[in-house]
Structure formats: structure tokens, C-alpha cells
Amino acid sequence: MTDFTANGPLPVTASPVRRDIGIKRRYAAERRFRLYGILAIGFGLLFLALLIWSVVSKGYTAFQQTEISIPVEFSEKVIDPQNKRATDPNVLMMANYPVLARDALAKELGVDLSDRVALKELNTMISNSVRVQLRDIVLRDPSVIGKTVTVRVLAEGNVDSAFKGQIDLSVPEKDRKINDRQLGWIHQLAEKGDLVKAFNTGIFVNGASSRPEAAGVGVALIGSFYMMLIVLVLALPIGVAASIYLEEFAPKNRLTDLIEVNINNLAAVPSIVYGLLGLAVFINFAGLPRSASVVGGLVLTLMTLPTIIIATRAALKAVPPSIRAAALGLGASKMQTIFHHVLPLAMPGILTGTIIGLAHALGETAPLLLIGMVAFVADYPGTPLQPATALPVQIYMWANEAERAFVERTSGAIIILLLFLLAMNIGAVILRRRFERRW
Amino acid sequence: MSGSVLLLCLLVIGVVAYWLGRMRANALAGAKLSSMHSRSSYHGGYTFVWSVLPALLLLAVWVSVSPTIVETTVARSFPQEVLTAAQSAQNLEFGIIRSIARGLTLLSSSDAATLVNGTGDVRALLSAKGVPLAGDPKPYMMTAALELNRLTAISQWLMTVAVIALSLGGLFFSLKAIAPKLRARNRVERVILGSLIAASSVAILTTIGIIASMLGEASHFFSMVPAHEFFFGTVWDPRFAAAGAGNSEGQFGLIPLLLGTLYIGLVAMLVAVPVGLFSAIYMAEYASPRLRAFAKPMLEVLAGIPTIVYGFFAMITVGPFLRDISAQINGIATGNFQNFIQAQSVLTAGFVMGIMLIPYVSSLSDDIITAVPRALRDGSLGLGATRSETVKKVILPAALPGIVGALLMTASRAVGETMIVVLAAGVAARIQINPFEPMTTVTVKIVNQLTGDLEFTSPQTLVAFALGITLFALTLCLNIYALYIVRKYREQYE
Amino acid sequence: MNMLSETAVEKVLERKMTNAALKMSGKDVCVFYGEKQALYNVNLDIRENTVTALIGPSGCGKSTFLRTLNRMNDTIDNCRVTGRISLDQDDIYDPSIDVVELRARVGMVFQKPNPFPKSIYENVAYGPRIHGLARNKAEFDEIVESSLQRAGLWNEVKDRLNEPGTGLSGGQQQRLCIARAVAVSPEVILMDEPCSALDPIATARVEELIHELRANFTIVIVTHSMQQAARVSQRTAMFHMGLLVEENDTDKMFTNPDDQRTQDYIMGRFG
Asked: What are the residue boundaries of the ABC transporter domain, all occurrences included (chain C) (predicted)?
């Protein structure tokens, strides 16, 4: 038999006549389709950028606050005209402190103390919080009465806005919150170095206030902290226990099927419904106090539970059966197998899910509105049973305030909230990266 | 001893019990550990469970039942006119008695004595201690309050004794039961299994709680306002709740709220579905690994941003922008610079909600598109189809049921979304079709009706629960149907 | 018996065909997956109206080579092909060559039957539809019928063309996929272990079909089974560890191979 391939090169076939399969048109469609995809992703990213830019550009100034340093004369004439402070402790509490600050400012600016209009305008340049600030100085050390001390007081919100250049000066003077004379004073003070922008610690530590310049998220942070603590302490163990049962022990029957559907559904129930549940069960039925962070914590726990259960079950499922078989084969009981081997291996996944659930709970607003967390709380709550508010609820309340300075505060509070969420999510990502195991 | 101190005591006894149980088991085993059925720590666990669990149950029952028993006992001694009064009036009176009783424990003994003999001003003294009274105290109340305190004290004392006794009893019983043959591990594990089951029942209880509480409150509402007026009413005008009186004036028509909810949801879906779907397709079929690694998490950031932030964004940025741009457009077109888009409008709320929903649509559809087997993709490409033809003619039709499920889930989010609409949709309950005008939603009205003073007897408050159950039912149907479809879909390709 | 006489006829046919013209050829083909090289300088000719079988142990690169022939490797990230592969006279990796057009000329049938979740009719009509090969319903009907007939499936499915293709048995599904490929009227059909998921009876049916298709198409088939290669092909190429070990007429290959490794593989000494 001869080898045919040895007979030299074979003839090569010729290309057949090209068929028209509409290449041009089809590639145009292809390009259009791709373009839609790119546009869609671009649209999403654009609005993400816009949203962040909108918040940051409006809010970064909230971390600075305009303060005025003025030498305040703690005049006895104003504080205690009848010299009764030794007998009546209320005198020092009730004294007219804002006048002290106003007069000091007037002196600093060389304004005539008999010019009532000017004095009134000066008065509106200093924050109302000056009353408490000066009172505290006097109460701490009553001997200060009669002396002159330089005090840094908060400028009023509109002065703050004007100094940060947020007030549109092209608006006619009478429609403006701050008039030309006040602007002049601001410049005068700023040139002397008495009016400066300083880092705003108040926004982190102060409680609620009707004055934007004195309002802060301190109470809200504590309230949110309590709630997160409650969610963590309750939802994590309950969620993990429930997942272990459902994933490892529960027989596959209609009841467990129902629980499964039920959990998936609970994860998708609108959050506001949990608020109604909390209102009806925890407040109306169980008689827990309204506005308390314990109720908020319980409601958020119920809300977060499905998320944690779903994440935990996925983590448990990802542990290969061979690990279980190995432990069982050595004579470990099922319980020992799970608690000694499966659970530790699933832990990174569980914690990641928990952090994400917590982050979600931290940003949740609607259910908290219903259980009365929309409250004007100026004092720190000592226990979770005392009235408090939460960070997102504080944002909601400020968002409803009309004043320009509150827009800045709101954005500032949002930045704080987003930073917390960012930190939590980065934590989750690091956790996942470091401990993730691929089987 | 109060409940919390008692709890601490139980814990201490439990720790001691664990230690004793272990010791005893070790002593019994001697040098031959294998003679015991279970390891000594399980025996410790066994004694722990016996000494803590029954006592804990008793404590829980006692704490929840004893106040009722004490209060009914006290109530028996009330004067006749109080006993025959209406239930709500009785509750009010009892509230005052409870406050007095609580106040008495806070007062110094001399102050308390002046109250008891009737010389002191009850209201003033108590409010100084931070216990405000809802009404003027009547003479019989002081005796009742004293009786209440006395009985409560007795109950507490009995409870302490009983709980500690039970705990110690359990401890001794279980210690005696420890023997080499005792299957301590199995018993302890059974208790653990029981607690695991209890934990998973929380999910069921939550659902039951949601349904029961809302049905309960909503049925109060429907006893005041006929159900057909609520479900088919076209006017929403609840008036304000008049304090105390359960007046049912005002109209509670669901229709305008429901229409607003659906309309805003529709606008949101019109934004979210094309953008989300095309993003998902691009990510799954075209994007280079690098673009995917960047853009996918970035889009998911949109899902992590709290809705209150979207609400603020809508209110401060998008709303005013749409209003101003509409004024400009109107001015260029007609010369009249009057805005035709309101700052708060269906469009504003729907658009921003749509942006919020993009990542839901895209990540759900991404999962579903990538679940389509590679073989189908190859089959189509191998025949000479372009990528987009493959996507349009093979992948999307194959993934359609799953995608429909994903969209239904997204729609249920849109219906239940609260903060964006609260801040950006407006509060006017109207029936109209102009997307540039404000409309309101079910969720907005739930928030409106439940912020501020609550009166659980007035329809103005209770209507929120009727709205809530409507919302719950609506989203439940959407979710369950969606879950069903998606599950079916997954089974098909598994 | 009957089988024997058939193979005798076949051998006569073969001798005529081995002088057929070159349809495709690979010159120095190397394929890389990222850093890993999967094929080393493969030179292989595919002759017109011939069945060429690619055999070799798992992971030897035979499927990889098959997929280079219609650039299905393009769909795999970080896959790189060097060397020259020509169809007729044209280099198919030349930038001027359009991959869609190429795949319309070089069709493919996969290892696992992968009918689209559509009706039988739509499965077959899919190719003609995307390529615009028919203008109206009648033309589509004709293409669908003739393709199904060529795939030997027509009599089994002609009464249920509107039922989903996924409802057919495994063997029928694979013949449906062949019909789907045939409907585009390609010049070459690549088959990647088309019978590995089928039972023996269905396998015999598909092998018969390959036989009949040879009259109109050039066929390249990857197979695991030596017997199958011997039964269906006229030319056989043996791959081992990314190298083309031997290329020869099938009957020569199976009776008197040139290479020791081929001999060992065919005798079942490794694989």
C-alpha cells in the first residue's frame, strides 16, 4: 500500500462564492448593543459620583465651624443685679447671659450700645448656645463675676454660612438672612483674627439643638451604638443557631421548606413593616418606652436576622462534606463535628455576612421613625432604655429643617454615616480576603 | 431580689454546678478516663443545664405572670364606682396607682410617711422624683398603691426563694445522677439542639408577629371605618386625631395612596430595569475582567448607600435641578419661565428610587445570566452568531423566567421603599397622571400617621396598620411569586 | 457480517478520497492558555469531503486544536494562538477575516448536546435566521426539513416541530444539534466528541450520519474511542501531550502506525 501523503502537495481548494450573511448590519447592531451596555454602566457610575459629590461638596464645610473670640465682661449688673445669688441658686441659672456676649461683641466692634437696631443685629450673630456656655463658666466658678475673660463663642448659623461663602450676595439685602452691615462686621472681626473657622468638634459630640451651629450627632451616635450592640448580641447568636439547625439538622420536609421560604421573604419585607411590628409588639403590647434604643435595637435585630441567616447558611454550605465525614468517621458526634470543625471553618463567611447586615441596620431609617426615635434629645442617654435617636434619623430630622446651615449639617452627618458604612464594608472585604478558603 | 440580680445568681450557681459536675465525673473516672461514657466537661454541662434551665423557665413564667395576679388582687379592693366604670377609665386609674406605687419606692421614708397619712402633696412630691401623674390621685389610690407595693414585694420574695430552691434542687439531683454510664453528652446535646430549634423559630415568630399585630390593630381600625371605605375609597383626608376621643371623622381612601405607590414604582422601574439589565449583560458578556472587577463593586456601592441619603439627594439636588431645568425649558419654548416640574414630584422620587434599584436589578440579573450554561452560549457562537445575537436570541430567552423573578423582587423593593418618597414625593394624596406633580405613597402615609402623638384608639393612628397590612400583603405576593419563579429557574439548570 | 462488507466498500471509497484537495491546514500552530502552552507546532491538513479523526489521551490538545479551527478559543479569556491556520487559501486568524463569517463556514457540534430552550423548528432555523439565509417562511420550512432529513431526524420529529428541543432524547438532541449546524450550510463541520454523552445505539446512529454527511461536508471529529475513529474516519491524527505524533490514513494508522507511541496508544498501553 503506498503512502498517499508522500505523493507531493495536494491541491488546495478554492474559496467558494461568498454568501451575504449581512455582516455589516449585524456588526452595527453589535456595536449599538455594546454601547447600550457601556452607557448603562456609565449612567450608574455617573449617578454614584454625582450623589457622593453632592453630599461631600455640601457637607465637608460642616466639619469646620465659625467661632468668635470676644472678651466677655461677666458684669454683676447683668448677671445678678439684686445680689441674691447667695440665697437663690436660680439667679445664676436664669441670668441673661446672651446680653453679656452681645455687649462684648458691640464693644469689640465699636458699636454704640444705645443703637438698639445695631444691637439686635449683633445679637443675631451669636449662637444661642452662648447662654449655656457662659452659664456653665459662671456656675463652675462664680468668682468670675466682675472679671473679663476672653471666650470663644459659636457664631450664629447664618454668620457661619456667610463666612463660608454659602450665602448668595447677589440677592437683594432685604431678602438675605444676613445684611450688609453684618457682613461688614464679619470682615472686621475676621481681619482682627477674632472670627475664625475651627475644627468642629460640636458636630460629633453635641445633642439635638434647634440652632444649626450648636446641633450635633452625639446623641444619635450613642443611640446608634446601643442599637448596633443589641443587634450584634442578639442577631448573631440567634442567627447562627437557627442556621445551624436549618442547614445541619432540620429534616427536609414541608415545615422546613416553609421556614426557608419564610426567611427569604422576611429578608424582602419592607423595613417599615418591621417598624409597625415594633410599635405594636414592643411598645403597645410589651410596654417598652418609646424612643428608646432598646426598642430600635430589637426591631433592627428582627430585620437583620434573615440577612445573617442567609449568609450563615451559605457559609455552612460552602464547607465541604468531606470535613464532616472525616470528623464523624473518627467517632465525633454530629454536634461535636459542627461546633469543632464546620462552624470555625464557616466563621469568616458568617462574620462577613454579619458586618454587612449590621451596616444595613446602621443605615436604616424608616422603622425607627415609627417607634418614636424622631425625638428632640439633647442629653446623652445613659442606658438603652432612655430616649435617644439614631444617626440616619438625625439626618432625616435635619433634612426637614429649613435653614441653609442645616443642609450643611445634614450633609456632614451623611458623610459621617457613609464613613462608618465604608469602614464596616472595608472590614468585611478584608475579612473575606484574609480568611477566605477555596475548596 | 430583682429579676436581674436573680439572673446573676443563677449564673453563679450554674458555673459552680459545672465545676462540681466536672470534678465529680473526674473523681468517678479515676485513672481510667475511658470508663466514663462522656467526657467530664459534658457532665459539667449536664449539671449546669439542670441547675439553670428549670429555674430560668420558672423565673420567666413568674416575671410575666405575677404582675397580672398582683394587680387583679389589688383591683378587687377598689371602690364600687371604679369597678363599674368603663375599661379604659379603669386602665387610666390603674396607671395612676402604678405611678404612685413606683414613686413611693423612690421617696425617702419621711416623705413617704407624709403621703401615707395624707398630709403631703402627692403630685408635687412625686414629680420632683421624676414620676409625673396623669391625674389627681383619689384617696383610695394611696391604699391601693401601698397594697400593690406590699404584694409585689411578697411576690418578689417568693420568687427568689422558689427560683434558688429549684436551681439548687436541680444541682443536687444532677450531681447524684452522674455515673459512668450516664449519657451526659447525649443529654447536653439534646438541650443544645432544643435551643437551636428555638432560635430558628424566631423567624417564624417574626412573621406571625407581623401578621398578628397588624391584623389585630387593623381590625380595630376596620371596626371604626368600614373595610370597603378603606379599600375602595378615593379620598384620603384623615383629619387630625382629636385627643382621647375616638372620632371617626375623616376619610381613609386607600386608592390615591396605592396609585401613587404604583406610579412612583413604575417610574423607578423604567429607570432601573433598562440600566440594570444592560449593565448586567455588559458585565457578564463583554466586560474585561479588569472593568468587571472595578465596575461591579462600584455599582454595588449604590445598594449599600442608606435610602435616607438617596432621599436627601432627591430633595436637595435632583428635585431643584428638575424644577430649574423645567423652568428654563418652558422659558425657551414659551417665554414664560414657570417651572412645570415640581421639586417634589413623581418624577423626582421615581428617578432617584430607580437609581437606588439599579444594583438590585443588575446583580440579580447578573447571577441569572451567568447561570445560563456555557454550552448554550458556545452552541450559538459556534453557529456564527455575534455576541449580541447570542444574548438577545438565546441567553435572554433562556434566562427570562429568572429575570422576571428578579424584576418582581425589585418591584417589591420599590413598593416598600420609604425614605426617598417621604423626602421627595410629597404628601398630597391625589389621583392624577402628571409625573411632574407630587403624589404620595402608602409608606409616606404610614410615617405621617405614626409620627407625633399616638392614640391607639383613634382611626387616625390605627389606619397606619391597615396600610401596613396592605403593603405587607402586596410585597408578600410579589416576593413569594418571585421566589417561586427563581427557584424553578435554578432547578432547570442544575 | 453485513458490517464487514460495508467496511470493504468503504475502503474502496477511501482510496478515492485520500487524493482529495486540502480544505484546511494548520502550520506551526501553538496555543497558550495564559502561561501554559497547550499545543506545540502542530502541522495538520484537513482534506475536503473527508472525515478526519483526532485521537489521543485526555488533555493531549486534540479538542484545543479543533477549537482553533473555527476560533472558538476566542471566547476563552487569555487564550493565544500562533502559527497559521488556513481555510481554502485564507489565514483564518488574519484580522481581515471575520469570525462570524468564519463560523458560518466552519460549524461546530459539541460534546454534550446543547439544544437551545426553544422549539425543534426554531433550533434548526436559528442559524439561517441570524445569517439571513432564508427570505420567507417557505424557505425556512425547506431548510428546516432538509437539515432534519440530512440529520436523519425528520421522520422522528416532523409531527412535533413546535415542541421544545430539550424534550428529545440525548441521541435525538445531538442529531438536532447536527441538523442545526447543517442548516447554516457550512463547508466544514467540527465535532467535539459528539457521542461521548450517548448510549451505544444512539452512537451508532450518529456515526452512520457522519458517514452520510461526508458527501457534502468536510468533517473533523475529536473522539476518545479508537473504534469510533476507525469506523468513521478516513484520516486520523494522533495527539500526545500537545504534540501531533502522527497523521495518516486511518487504516494504516490502525494496522501499521509509523510511531511507537501511536502503536502503544492503540494497543491500549496508555491513555
From this structure: 24-266
Contact C238, C55 (CB under 8 A): yes
pLDDT at residue A312 in the model: 95
DSSP A17: P
Do B21 and B133 share a domain, yes or no?
yes
Highest mean pLDDT: which of A291-295, B268-272, B379-383?
B268-272
Contact call for C107 and B375, based on CB within 8 A:
no
HEC-encoded secondary structure of A306-360: HHHHHHHHHHHHHCCHHHHHHHHHCCCCHHHHHHHHHHHHHHHHHHHHHHHHHHH
Cα separation, A311 vs A320, in Å, equals 16
Q: What DSSP element (H or E) covers C268?
A: none
A40 touching chain B per CB within 8 A: yes
Whether residue C11 has pLDDT greater than 60: no
Identify all chain A residues contacting B355, using CB atoms and an 8 Å cutoff. Answer: 44, 47, 51
B290 in contact with C, Cβ within 8 Å: no
Domains delineated in chain C:
22-266 (3.40.50.300)
Distance (Å) of CA B256 to CA A128, A279, B219, B231, B275? 44, 25, 21, 10, 29
Mean pLDDT, rounded, of chain A: 86
Among A32, A41, A409, the residue to mutate for chain B (most B Cβ within 10 A)? A41
DSSP A210: S
Report the residue from B289, B377, B397 with minimal CB separation from C117. B397
B251 Cα to chain A: minimum distance (Å): 22
Q: How confident is the model over B401-411, as pLDDT tens digits?
A: 889 999 999 99
Burial of B77 from C-beta contacts in 10 A (0-12 / 13-18 / 19+): exposed
Chain B from 13 to 32: CB within 8 A of any C CB? none
pTM, full prediction: 0.84
Joined grid coordinates for residue A235: 442577631
Which of A3, A7, A10 has the CB atom closest to C22's CB atom? Answer: A10
Q: Print the domain residue range for B93.
A: 3-182
- Measured on CA atoms in the order A126, A132, A135, A140, is the torsion positive or negative? negative
B203: in domain: no
A366 grid coordinates: 424608616
> Does B492 score more than 80 pLDDT?
no
What is the distance between the alpha carbons of residues C226 and C181, in angstroms, rounded to a whole number? 25
The answer to whether residue B333 neighbours chain A at the CB level (below 8 Å) is no
Q: C45 forms bridges with which residues in the sheet? A: C25
Q: C99 in contact with A at a CB cutoff of 8 Å?
A: no
What is the identity of the amino acid at B395?
A: I
In three-state secondary structure terms, C85 is: strand
At residue B279, φ and ψ (nearest 5 deg) are: -60, -45
User: How far, in whole angstroms, is CA C84 from its chain's centroid?
Assistant: 20
CATH code, domain with B433: 1.10.3720.10
B145 and B293 share a domain?
A: no
Q: Half-sphere exposure of residue A197, counting CA atoms within 13 Å on the CB side? A: 14
Span C77-89, average pLDDT: 89
Q: Work out the minimum CA distance from A320 to partner chain C, whole angstroms.
A: 27
- B83 pLDDT above the threshold of 80: no
Question: A13 and C249: CB-CB below 8 Å?
Answer: no
Q: Does B395 touch chain C (CB under 8 A)?
A: no
Q: Of the candidates B154, B182, B210, which is a domain's last residue?
A: B182
ipTM: 0.88
Which range has the worst mean pLDDT, A32-46, A160-174, C244-258? Answer: A160-174
pLDDT in tens, C109-160: 999 899 998 899 999 999 999 988 888 999 999 999 999 998 889 999 999 9
Distance to chain B for A245, nearest Cα, Å: 6
Query: Which chain C positions have a beta carbon within 8 Å of B375's beta carbon?
Result: 110, 112, 114
Among residues B182, B207, B225, the one where a domain terminates is B182
Q: Which 3 state secondary structure label does DSSP give A245? A: helix
